[in-house]
Amino acid sequence: MTLTSRPLSKGDSENKYPLWITGADALMDSLRIHGVKVIFGYPGGAILPIYDAVHKAEQDGWLKHYMVRHEQGGSHAADGYARSTGEVGVCFGTSGPGATNLVTGIATAQMDSVPMVVVTGQVPRSAIGTDAFQETDIFGITLPIVKHSWVIRDPSDIAKVVSEAFFIASSGRPGPVLIDIPKDVGQEFFNYERILPGDRIPKGFKRNGEINDKDIKKIIELIEESKRPLLYVGGGAISSGAHEGIATLANNYQIPVTTTLMGKGAFDEKDNLSVGMLGMHGTAYANFAVTECDLLIAIGARFDDRVTGKLDTFAPTAKVIHIDIDPAEVNKNRRVDVAIVSDVSKAVCKINENFSNNKTALNTRNWLEKINYWKNKHPLFIPPAEGEIYPQEVLLKVRDFCPEAYITTDVGQHQMWAAQYLRNAPRQWISSAGLGTMGFGLPAAIGVKAALPNSDVICIAGDASVLMNIQELGTLSHYGLNIKLVIINNRWQGMVRQWQESFYDERYSASDMSCGEPDFVKLAESFSLKGYLISERKQLLDEFKSALNFDGPALINILVRRGENCYPMVPPGKSNAQMVGYVNSEN
Which of 165, 212, 358, 538 is most buried, by CB atoms within 10 Å? Predict the structure, then answer.
C-alpha cells in the first residue's frame, strides 16, 4: 500500500499534535502560515514532489502559482511582487539549470535589498556530490548573493528553516535567502510540527541598538546651523516606509530633497522641495545642489558610484549625516560626521519628534531660491513637436495618461528617461538599480500584477532589453494579466550606443539591434496578445491612449528617434557638476 499524507487544511489546529506528512507538504504548510499566497516557478524532476504539494495547495484554494516560462522570469516576478507590496516574494526552481537560471534574479534582489525566499529542488541526498543528472551546488554558487542559505537534509528541519528564512529575508536590511531541498527530503514522511512566524530567531542575530539621543541632538544642531542642507534619499526609505516622515522633515526645515533611482517615490516629485533624481543621469539641478550643499543628510542610501560620480568631489564641502539600517554601509564610501544605524523610519520620526519652531526655514530661503534658479535655467529637455517621435515624449504621455500606474522598467536609456520624467508614489517604481539587469521589467510587472490585480501596471522596456525575457509574454497570455508593455524602440542597445558614441569614437560594436529584430506586433499576436505599432507622433494622442486603456494585456511598440541620447550625463571620472548635455534654457 502506498502511503499518502493527509491534506492540510486551514482548520488544522496549530501545534496541537504532529502530522504524519511528507517534507513537500510540510514546506507548503510552513509557507502558508507565513502568509504566502502567491508563488512563481517552473517545475522539473528534482522539485516534482514539491509541485505535487503545490497542486494540493491550489486545490485547497489558499495558493496561486504562476508558471513562468523561464526560471529567471520567476525570480524577477517574485522580486516585483516584493517591491510593490513590501512582503516577501517566493519563487521555485528545480535543480541544475533550473537553479542556475535563478542566479541573476537572486543577485538583482541582493543588490537592491529585496526580501525574497528562493526554493530549489536538489538531487536525492545519496546522489549529492556524484555529478548526478542535473546536480549543481546551488548552495555554494549563491553564497555571495544571499543573506543566508540552507540545504535541508532532514525533513524535520523544514518548519524551522522556513521560519528562519522569512525572518532573515525581511529583517534588518532585506534580501534574498535560498532553501535547497533534495528530492527524497520532499518525499519522506515524518512527524511534522508547525513553527509559527517569529518563533525562530536565528542564532547570532543581533537587533540594532537604541537610537542615541545625543546623536539626534547633534543632527538637529547640524540642520539648524546649515545654510544649504540637502536630503539625499535612497531605497532604504522605501523599504522602511519612511516617506511620510521624510515629507515632515523636509517641510519642517524647508530642506530640498533628491532621491536615488531606488529612492524614487520616497518623496513627492511634484513638491516644490523636490529636485528629482541625482547622479549619472540625474537632473542638473539635483547634481548642482549636491555639489554646493553644506549639509548632506543621507537616508537609506549607500553612496553608490552611479550617484556620487568622482567620489572625492561628491558634496565636497558638506558635513554628512548618514542614517541606514546596515552598519556595513556607514563610512564605507564616504566618511560621515554623524551616523545612526537604525530602521530609517524610526530615526526620521525621532528627529521630527525633537523639532521645535525655529528660524531654520529663513536660513534656507536663499538656498531654495538658488535651486529654483537652477530649475528654471537647466530644466529637463522638452522635446519639440515635430519630426520623429522623441523617447522623452512617450514618457510624458505615460505620465499624463496613467499617473497612478505601477511602473516597472528594463535597463538602459529608457530606464533613465522613465526615472527623469515619471513621478511615482512609494513602491510604484520597480526597477533594477544596483545590478542593472536587462530583461527585468516584464517579469517584474507580472509579479506586481499578481500582487495588485486591480492596479494599472505598465512595463517600460527597450527593444534590446525586452528580448532578454520576451518568453514571459506566454505568462501574460496564460493568465490574462492586464499589463501594458511599452517598448521604446530605437533599434539599438541604446545606452551602449550612447557610450560608444561618446567615449569610443563612434565605433558601434555589436550594439545595432535592427538586424534580426522581430516584428513585435506579430510576436504579441502569436502569443494571442494585442499588439500595437506607433510610428508617428499623431498616434501618441489617441492611439497610444487607447492602447493603454485596452482591457487586457498588450504590447505597444513605439518607434523613436534612433540617435537620441539620454542627458544630463556625468562622464566617468568626473564630478556631478561636470555633466554633459544638460539643458541651458538661456541658450
Answer: 165
